[in-house]
Amino acid sequence: MAEHTSSSITIEAAPADVMGVIADFARYPEWTGEVKEAEVLSTDDQGRAEQVRLVLDAGAIKDDHVLAYTWTGENEVSWSLVKSQMLRSLDGTYALTPLAGGERTEVTYRLAVDVKIPLLGMIKRKAEKVIIDRALAGLKKRVESAPKA
């Protein structure tokens, strides 16, 4: 990934529980403010999403785009843009690191976005940071409030 923005958060749950929420695209509209619709278009031989269509409404940015997902082991997923109305590129990664005892997880989210309209690099990085921080906070809240199995 070229120029990107990155941030991390610690979630009080095992990595498998965190990845379970990340991989459950159909429920994104329930916990991410910006995602209004999510539809898995194709899955791999393990049933994990390969292509997902997302409808976003993030105020100034409204978009309908398709992302391709790559799953690396049990603790990492990355994605890249397949098609979009507003974006030129979008590359991201969630990397999960188990912490002491495996009941806590550090989640690192990396994101690089390029829009079709011209934006100053500084404004683009700030927008990426807002997207990352909101996503991590939403993920933490969703995972930690989920009933334990």
UniProtKB/TrEMBL annotation:
Pfam families named in the record: Polyketide_cyc2
InterPro entries: Polyketide_cyclase/dehydratase, START-like_dom_sf
Source taxon at top rank: Bacteria
PANTHER family associated with the record: COENZYME Q-BINDING PROTEIN COQ10 START DOMAIN-CONTAINING PROTEIN, CONSERVED PROTEIN TB16.3
Name of the protein: Cyclase
Species name: Streptomyces rubiginosohelvolus
